[in-house]
Specification:
It is built from nine helices and five strands, in the order βαβααβαβαβαααα. By secondary structure, the chain is an alpha/beta fold. Helix 1 crosses helix 6. Bound molecules: flavin mononucleotide.
């Protein structure tokens, strides 16, 4: 979209807010879009969904944007409840009134487990939302495992975040040209940030370490759903 200053709104859907991996990924995309001349804004969905004033402000911000960037963690193969509530609210209000220009949406999801396909359902929810709320679907990116980034700014996250950075750079370029997220960006995002064997080694080590705490061990022994009779 040459000659038009794009307004990009980042909607962070993690309770960890600016400390989250969601924020790391979203902020990196935003800074790349700023390089392309975009004007940007950030909203913390958890915060804004708490009150009527917040929900109205959220809607005002959505109505001023050209591109919405939704970014959230994966929770139980799905999206966090306040994110779903926000999607439903935005859809319902847009059925009453919406800006006359075409608005587009891109979704980023990050998960704890290392397989990118864990995020398929969550991305499908965003795609369905785009359809129902009448946004142009610009595509989705799944980053796994987000825990490796753990809220660090992507620029400081070193080698492990190289594919994530590259993916977001490609996505930003495509969005600035008015196109959807190219498959090259999707493939780079899909690459595990660390090899799966390394992830499992570290994850197992960490679980075993946590279990050394007697309080945790006691919980481990509990079998609340086991029938006793
Ligand atoms: C309540 C809860 C549920 C989660 N469910 C999943 C899940 O189903 N699959 C998965 O891969 N990771 C799951 N995770 C891990 C998060 O997706 C992961 O830690 C993510 O990087 C957090 O991102 P954030 O920093 O943006 O909040 C879950 C985490 C929490 C707290």
């Amino acid at each position: 979209m040459t000659g038009h200053l794009q307004r990009v709104l980042l909607l962070i859907g993690s309770p960890r807010g600016s400390q989250s991996t969601s924020a790391s990924l979203g902020s990196y995309l935003l800074s790349e879009m700023e390089k392309q001349g975009a004007e940007t804004g950030v909203i913390n969905l958890y915060q804004y969904m708490k009150s009527d004033v917040g929900r109205n402000d959220l809607m005002d911000a959505v109505n001023q944007a050209d591109i919405l960037v939704f970014v959230s963690p994966l929770y139980i193969d799905c999206l966090p409840a306040p994110v779903i509530a926000a999607l439903e609210m935005i859809r319902d209000r847009r059925m009453v009134a919406q800006p006359p220009w075409r608005q587009r949406l891109i979704a980023l999801v990050n998960s704890g487990f290392p397989e990118p396909e864990q995020n398929t359902t969550a991305l499908a929810i965003y795609k369905q939302f785009a359809k129902e709320a009448e946004f142009g679907w610009a595509g989705g990116l799944a980053f796994a495992p987000g825990a490796v980034i753990n809220g660090k700014p992507l620029g400081d996250a070193g080698f492990v975040a190289r594919n994530a950075r590259k993916s977001l750079e490609i996505a930003a370029g495509a969005l600035a040209r008015g196109g959807p997220v190219p498959s090259g960006a999707v493939k780079l995002a899909d690459k595990p940030l660390v090899p799966i064997w390394m992830f499992l080694l570290n994850a197992n080590r960490s679980w075993k370490h946590q279990v050394k705490d007697p309080a945790v061990w006691k919980e481990m022994e509990k079998r609340p759903f086991r029938k006793t009779n």
